[in-house]
Amino acid sequence: MKLPKKGKEDSSNKEKRLRKSEVLTSKGLELFDTLRQVRIKEAKAEGVPPYIIFSDKTLMDMCIKLPFDKTEMLSVTGVGEYKYEKYGQIFISAIRKFMNDTKENLFYQGAIENLEEKSVSKSKHIRKVDFYLTDEMKQNIKPLGKVTISQFVDHLNGLRDEKLMKRLTATSLTSILKEEGYLKEEFNRLLGRNTVTVTDKGEELGMSLQTRISDKGNEYSVVIYDDKAQEYLIFLIDRLGSYQE
């Protein structure tokens, strides 16, 4: 009974290897295996399945784009602010070390064009569902400590099947929090525009306002959500149902 199943899995894995070999050069495949080992190491350290760290699709995109810095890494499929803060530099270091800080194409141009054509073709036929939390996603949600809503949303989006489900947006959640009185907009005289601030009700929930300095030296504020506030966001998503991209 097990032999047919094993044969089927071997066939599937072989097809995946063939697809990678059609896209990546031999050196590209070596880099992919290197990144896969980095992923395994991080997964073991956290006690989670490797795909929770990054999917194969994300690793392949890293091999194609060869990100050497934050901006380039954030352009990789499946890498948001949260994933970058947690794993970005680890994978960037591995890529730069493998490439000896020198970039070169590790893919076949024709294969990339075919992938893009297939992606466009599939997007025309597959209708994604609005974002919602599946039971499997809920099991993989972890407390993140004090984070922004964008970082929290990145974490949730990283748990979904991006081929089948639309992205959750921070804007959609922020709008609901305003309606429920946890956040409000106030006119900031120094900035000359409306800014979002936390109400007393929001502070009781575990939300706070934090001042930061931009790269250009400008001061700005962000709303921070602790673990208690994140639990409420999960409850909110479940209660209100799906969210559109």
UniProtKB/TrEMBL annotation:
Boundaries of every HRDC domain copy: 25-105
Q: Which domain of life is it from?
A: Bacteria
Gene3D superfamilies xref list: HRDC domain (1.10.150.80)
Q: Which GO terms describe its molecular function?
A: nucleic acid binding; nucleotide binding
Stored InterPro entries: HRDC-like_sf (IPR010997), HRDC_dom (IPR002121), HRDC_dom_sf (IPR044876)
User: Mind telling me which residue stretches traverse the membrane in this protein?
Assistant: none
A family per Pfam = HRDC
What is the official name of this protein in its record? HRDC domain-containing protein
> Can you name the source organism?
Herbinix luporum
